[in-house]
Structures are given as C-alpha cells and as structure tokens.
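Reopening this one. Same input as before:
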Amino acid sequence: MPHQAYLPQTGRIVAHAGDPRGAFAGIAGLKWLLGLWLALLFLPAWAQAPAAEPAACSAQILSIDVAKGDDDGARPGAVAWTPATLPDDWSRRWPGYGGTAWYRIEWRPQCPDAQPGPVALALESVVMAGEVYVNDALIWRDPQLAEPLSRSWNMPRYWLVPQALMRDGVNTLWIRVVGVAGQTPGLGPVRLGEPQAVRRWHEDLVWNNRTLFQVNLIVSAVLGGLFFCIWIVRREQRTYGWYALMALFWVLFIANVLVTSPWPFPDSLTAARANAMVLVLYVACFCIFTWRFGGQAFARLEKALWALSAVLLAVAALAPVAVQPWTNLAVFLTAAAVFFANCLQFPLHAWRTRKPEHGMLAACLVIFLFVSAHDLLLILKLIAPGHAYTPFSSLVVTLCMSAILGLRHARNVRRIERFNHELADAVALARAELATTLDREHALALANTRLQDRLQIAHDLHDGLGGSLVRMMAMVEQSDAPLQSRQFLSMLKLLRDDLRQTIDSGSSAGVKVPATPQEWIAPLRHRFVQLFDELGIDAEWRFPPHWQPAPSALQCLALTRLVEESLTNVIKHSRARRILLQVLQFETGALELRIEDDGIGFDVAAVQQAGISVGMRSMHTRIARAGGTLQVTSEPGRTRLVARMEPQPAQRDDAAWRAQPVPRRLAGAGSD
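Same output, byte for byte:
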C-alpha cells in the first residue's frame, strides 16, 4: 500500500511512490484480469461517472503536529504539540503508550480566481479508531472509541468538505486517534485537495486495502469449500483435506484485515492474540499440505512442527499484556521462518522428482516466498515504504494451487475412468471364460454322471443279480441229480425277483424301510438258508426286535448289499462251515452290522492295494456313501466285517445323544 510523507519545503503531503494517478498503472492489467469474474458485482459502481462539480480548490498543508490527549479525550493545550510527519507511528515517540492522541493539520485552500469551491479530504488509515473535525465541526466518528475499539486501521475514508465549514484563511483539521500499545498506533497518510485527484487516490486505496482482500477471501473460501467437499467424498485424498484446512485459516487471517470490529473478542489485544494463533495454524497446515502433495514423509519433522506450533499458540495466548507486542513479533517471525523454510525445501524436492505438478507448485511457492519476504521487510520497516504485493500474489498463488489440485483431481478421475473401462473389459472376458468353463464343467458333470450311473448299475448287478447267479451255480454244482423243470422255473423266478429288486432300489430315497430288523433281513435269510443247508454251512442270525432308531433308506440299502456281497463271497471263496450275522444298536443311536465266518481268510491289504476286487470296492463305496464306516479283518479261521452306521441328525434322540456312548446289545436275537 502507498505511504505518504510530509515535505516541509512545500507544505504538502506526497506519496513516496510518485503521483497516485500512476502508482498502480503497472498493475492495471492484473487488476482487470483478477476482477473480470466479479465484473457484474463491481460494474455498476465503476460505471457511475462522477457528478458534475463546480471549479475545485486545491489545498496547501502548512503544518502537522501531534500531542497526547487527556484521559477523557479532550484536546491538549498549546504547549504539548510536537511536529510530525505522516504516516505516523507514535510507539516510536511514546514507547508503550496506549490511549488518545490528537493530530492538528493546518491548511489553506487555494481556489482559482478566488472563487470558493469544494475541497476533498481522504484518510488511508486510523489506527485503531478516531474522529475527524474540520474547524471544530465534527464530520466523522468511529462507532467505538473505547474498548472494544472500532478497527479503522485498514479502512480508507473520503469526504467532500462542505464550503460552509471552510474559512478564507488558515483552516485546521483535527483528527483524534485512539490506539493500543503494541499495535502500531497512529495516523496514516492524509490527502487534501482537488476532489477528482483525491477520489482517484481513495479508489486506489479501496482497491488495494479492501477489494483485493475481499476477492482473496471469497476465492479462498470457495476453493477451500470445494476441496473440502471432495475430501469428504474421498477421504483417502488427504491432500484436499489439508488444503481446505489451510484455506480456512487463511480466510480467518485475511478477515482480520477486513473486519471493522474486534467481535467476538472483548478487546483489540485479544483479537491480536487470536490473529497470531490463526497465522501459526495456517503455516502448520500449509507445511503439511505441501508435504502430502509432494508425497514427502517427515514423521519426526511433523511431530516437531506440531510441538513448535503448540508452543507458539501457548505463547500467543498466555503472554502478559506488558510483553505482548514482543511475543506477537516473536510468534510472527518464527511462523514466517517456518514458512520460508518450507517454501525453500519444496523446490528442491520438485527438482528431484521432476514431476510437472510438483514443479508448478514449486514455482508458485518461489513467487510467494519472494513476495512475502519483501512485504515482511516492509512491515518491519527495514526497507523504504512502498507497495505491498501479498494481496496480489496470494490471490494468484491460491488460484494456481487450486488449479494444480484440480489438474491432479482430473487426472485421478481419468485414471479411475480408465480403470473402470479396463475392469469392465476384464469382467466381460472373465464372464466369457466362466461361461466356457461352466460349459466344460457341465459336460464333465454329465460324463461323470453317466459313469457313476454305470458304476452304480454294475455294483447293483454284481451285489444283487450276481449273488443270485452264484447261488444258482452252487446249487447246480452241488446237486447229485439233474434239476427238474420246476426247479429251473424256481431259479428263474428268483433271478427275476432279484432283478426287480435291483431296479426298484435304484432310487433309495423312495424305498420304504422295513418296520423291524426281522422284516428287513427275512428276504435275504430266505434266499441263503436253503443254499447254506445244502452246502453244510451253519448260519446264525441275531437281530433286535425293533429299530432304535430306524436307519435311513440309503443306509438300509447299503447294509442289504453288504450282506449279499459278503455271503456270496463266503460261498465262493471262504470254504467256511459256520457264519454269524448280528446287528447291534447303541444308546447313541449308532448301528453295527457284524458278519463273521471261519473260512480260510485272505490278505485284506493285498486285495485293497491291487484293486482287482469289484465286490470289496463296492462294499466300501456303498457304506461310505451312506455315511458309515467299514472295517474288514481276516486271518485263517476267522474273517470279520464290521459296518458302523451313525444316525442321521433327525434320527438322534436328544437324551440318548447327550448320554455316554455305552454299547448295549439288544435282546431278542434269533437263530436258525
């Protein structure tokens, strides 16, 4: 912002940067560029042409003096005045003083042709609050001249001095300023003179001190809110969340420039503390944002950063009022040092990664670094007064950073779209492969079903009809006399019944389980007893009178085939003279079928390993399919088969199931 100084040789207040009409010519293009999207907002005000005014007068500044005011704000006496130049910071003249000061500016109007005309008055800033008199006539006053003070430190003001208040000779401009120690209290540049020139100067001040900050605040708030919404939707994109948080603290920091009241804080010092704390949080979030954006992992450095931020926040919040100016300055410089260090390290990181987006952000940070360093030296008054460029650079950098984030987001969206297309293609290919696989599996399943059906038919014929044929052959071989036609007819009927039983038992689920074990074993017993008698084999049949519980149809069929195959093998191979068949049931509901003979025996392991016995495989397969187990032991003089069937869940009696599995042989076994 332009600063003014009083030149005793001419008695005028002039700008150090030159004529105010040309002070901002170099940035006019940038102003129009940045203000284009707000044209509808400001166009009506810009379009208003100044009203026609009579011949204007200029003004000649004669002297500027300052003096401390009384506690009640009254003007000081004649002996207390001290010459001053504007802008004036009375903390250098009166260190630690906070209160009222009066500025007395004497001036003389200079009108052409001695005709009275209007004179314009403009103030750049009053730090913090004040009031203005022209020849003892009040023309303006801040709403609050006591804590909480109004904040006019960045509020340019303009008046057209009424002719009725001006005198022909020397006029006096009285400006009362109420300031706070440590807040650079004083009076900014003052301009008196031709209305058009003063108006242009005032408009430039409004643009630089107010409008540009308003645009910056609006842009930061909108972009921060936009990226906050993106972060809400995609929590894994933490860069957007840190940018939104950084934008929030930047908006709060800029708001300190625009607000005209310390609300919601009780006084100006508390507002200054809060502003320092917001600056610390902004710098911390700014560092985290750049690290997240660049993919940098500084675990220890992040902890140190937050620890330093906590210390700075505590110092800013708890420092005594007497040393608050120094603590605020220390907090400000420390935060600035962290900010500058981060702005320096990120370009080095961008140079190593060579990523375009890192390079663009590094360029923005370098620009922001130099501009901030210049304005910091300007604030600390280590360089000559001049323009502050942070309002321009912060707006440009904010837009650039947002554009970089937008490019990254757009690239991520395009990447997601490509992934979705690739995923859709992969899903379509997988569907086609799955359809092919399912067709192949269906064909294999059909082939397997046909094979299983053939095996099932082979087992049924082997165990049922095959056993009957073996018995018939044994009867023919053992017969001493030729068989009569009636005997052949009986054999054929028996084969027919066995074949019918094989066909009917093809669907075991539909077979009705016999009511008792005796009914179940009766057909088998009838078939083999006559043959055993003719062969001289003693058979003993031991079966309980009732099922407890009854086996399932599949289990019953498996046991039937097991009995047929076992007895057929005894006839064919064992040379046994005695056979025992018995059924045992236990309290758990399990059922055991035991078949023993005193034949010559066989090598069980060799038969199973060779895999040449269809009957042995059939027995094991049937029992396993019915949910049971089959144990076969054999030695000369004793061969034993034990088939154990566990009850189905629906068959188990709860009390018996919870009881200890103590086997119990049921009474009532029968014998032949």
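So the earlier flakiness isn't reproducible anymore. For the record, The two ends are 125 Å apart (CA to CA).
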